[in-house]
Design goal:
The chain has one domain: Aldolase class I (TIM Barrel, Alpha-Beta Barrel). Helix 13 packs parallel to helix 14. The longest helix is centred in the N-terminal third of the chain and has 14 residues. It is of the alpha/beta class. It is built from 14 helices and 10 strands. The strands form 2 sheets. Strands 3-10-9-8-7-6-5-4 form an 8-stranded parallel β-sheet. Strands 1-2 form a two-stranded antiparallel sheet.
């Protein structure tokens, strides 16, 4: 595939702590509200109406896939919020959460830690869940081997981790990612490549790798210092990860050009587009309007204070 096809067509600590304090202060009220929502929402016995679906190889999956970062304690908001999420998502709550997702019509979960999720997957299946799983894997030899991941979690696909992909491509070691893809396919499941850098997706597509799908981050969070210096100046100081407003348009343009299904992630900018319902709705609308009809989205959810599961499922039905 020719590259000309791609031609143009932290939060500051004081502010973050203030917001977190307000959230915790209102926890009694919001937990009660969440409990009432769960009684009539996704946790109810009556299953929700089906969500729009796409194909990943022989599998049909919902266009909205539940992500893993909140479950794993990766908030992109700092260590306090990371801990907040990890303490909430006990193994029992993860099972309950994914059961609620399934009842809301979401049938696929992308997880990032097979060691943590193996018992969760077993429990869900023992309870009759039909939830499908995608595993994000670093390819590190010290991590759980691919064959063991397949045996213990029974995923429909395994994806090479986006941040690691970006680093290896930058170091001229893309063959390591390609070899990983081959190992996954040899294990009998779908093989995917995730990336934050759109150029990595272009290269894989142009070189004709046998990849079943991509995970495409809406924000290029792994820019080098030199790349960041070339970006247009911003009005406020950005601490930590840099979320640039132009990034989603760049990545979705690439996603539209590749033949494989793409699963867009961080469509809500790791919580930065969750200030109100209208902003969340706009992010879902943009994602589905700018991805291919054969593409989906992966969205992490933290339902501690509001029924994000039902809300996100509603937007997927509306725009997907």
């Amino acid at each position: 595939m020719s590259t000309d096809r791609y031609d143009a067509d932290v939060t500051p600590r004081r502010e973050f702590l203030s917001r977190l304090s307000l959230a915790v202060a209102g926890s009694t009220l919001t937990v009660a509200r969440t409990s009432r929502a769960q009684a009539t929402g996704p946790a109810a016995d009556q299953p929700a109406s089906p969500l729009p679906t796409i194909r990943l190889g022989p599998h049909q999956v919902t266009r909205l896939i539940v992500g893993s970062n909140p479950i794993s304690g990766y908030s992109y908001m700092g260590p306090i919020m990371d801990r907040h999420m990890r303490e909430y998502f006990t193994p029992e709550r993860i099972v309950e959460f994914l059961t609620d997702c399934e009842r809301a019509g979401i049938d696929t979960h992308q997880f990032g830690s097979p060691e943590k999720m193996a018992p969760v997957c077993r429990t869900l299946r023992e309870r009759g869940s039909k939830m499908k799983f995608l595993c994000l894997h670093s390819g590190d030899p010290k991590a759980m081997p691919v064959a063991q991941v397949v045996r213990e979690t029974q995923p429909i696909g395994i994806v090479h981790h986006g941040g690691v992909t970006d680093r290896l491509f930058r170091q001229g070691q893309s063959q390591e990612v390609h070899d990983f893809v081959k190992r996954v396919r040899d294990a009998g499941v779908l093989a995917g490549v995730s990336a934050h850098n759109p150029d990595c997706i272009k290269q894989v597509a142009d070189e004709g790798w046998q990849v079943d799908f991509f995970m495409t981050c809406f924000y290029y969070l792994t820019r080098t210092k030199e790349e960041l210096e070339k970006m247009p100046p911003v009005a406020t100081l950005q601490i930590g990860y840099s979320f640039f407003a132009s990034d989603p348009a760049t990545m979705t343009r690439v996603a539209r050009q590749v033949d494989q299904p793409c699963l867009g992630y961080k469509i809500l900018a790791a919580g930065r587009k969750c200030g109100d319902k209208k902003t969340v709705e706009g992010a879902f609308r943009f994602a589905f309007e700018n991805l291919k009809p054969t593409d989906g989205v992966i969205v992490g959810m933290y339902p501690r204070y509001q029924d994000q599961i039902s809300e996100n499922a509603t937007f997927a039905r509306q725009f997907g």
